[in-house]
Write the structure tokens for this entry.
Amino acid sequence: MAATLLAFDDTDSPDGMCTTFLATLILKELEDYDLIGLPRLVRLNPNIPWKTRGNAAICLPLGEGRGDATVCGEIDGSPVRSFERGTPVLSSVMLDAAAKVLERVAEFECEKTNPGIVCTNRRPPPRMYWQTVRSVVELADVEACLAECGASWKKYKNGRGIIGAASAASWRPQDRTWEVIAYRDTSLVGTPRAIDPKSVVEMDRRTAHTFNNYDYEMKHVAITPASPCPVLFGIRGDSPEELLEARQMIRGEAPSSWLLFLTNQGTDDHILSRRIHELAPGMSVRISARVVRQASTIEGGHVIIRISDGDEVDAAFYEPSGSLRGVARKLVAGDHVIVFGSVREEPRTINVEKLQIVGLQEMRVKRSNPVCPSCSKRMGSMGAGQGYRCKVCGERMPASAAEAVTVPRGVTTGWYEPPVASRRHLYKPIRRMTRENINNLL
Ligand SMILES: [Zn+2]
């Protein structure tokens, strides 16, 4: 391998430190090493109960750089360079240096913060990533796997941070995106972020490959986090070059540092295609099914539809899914849908995060009785479902002969998604699903 992988996870708490910021601190402290490629920001299973804020892990490929280098960040006024190629170094020395930084800043007092740090010259097998992004992995299995790779590691408290760290190291990007993250001056952390919303809308309109910048439905800036962490803003997209330009379009508070990450955000890597009988709590799934009956609205404005692929389950559209609920209300029995969402334990429902309407049932209502084919008079009904009889000549016609009109459904086939603010990090936006070709261009 061309670099030594330094990976860490679970250093943040719901209201303080941020694992991506630790990346800048470690890069600053470990300045003797070069970055080989980009820092990696890897999001893991969003459904595990003990996760800290965003369930993010970081992997820094470090070593002795060779070949061309490009600027991929700036930390306290000094540029960060990313080398095309490199050679690995002694990982145990690197581990100790990084551990010192982590121990200085991690929020150990938070119950949910259980840091872990891994250093390896051999990338752990890909299954480690896929298991961790889609299900729950045992600490003992991860440690056995790391030992096999000849990795060195340090764990703190319950040690679960090792799992995310090892997974970030094992990630081999298939689909991938980039995020440029700008950090605040330390003295400002905790104060409101001064970002001009107009500049965010402008950036959104002037860039072709960024996503989740601005929530037009909620009129809300989506590039700034809600928590009091050191992040000023993060812009996500499909083109690293464009992200570097996008960063400079944002007006307001000046960042003290910034860094470009390669990430698995916006890829739907956590989603598994499953049949309804295979569902288990905590899974994120894609299900192709028919609507069994019309939507019902329950307390709190949540909308429930019953779906079936032979087995049945309720699909729930909660209040934060915004206009998606209005779409769900228009569905009727027989409509073919593909729902994306996570499986809730109690009550057993799919919490819908994205919807594709594949086929809509034609809805017809009776307008009038049929006209007699023999004497052209309007026929009379013989009772519900009994068909029609002509009062003049006695001709009979079946119930299906009634004249009917097609009722507009008020919804069309296609993709539907929730407002930007209620999307999770791994959520693949529809604009990425319908322009897959962009990945092939890069
Ligand atoms: Zn007749």
Remarks:
- The first strand starts at residue 4 and ends at 9.
- The longest helix spans residues 91-105.
- Residues 365-402 form one domain.
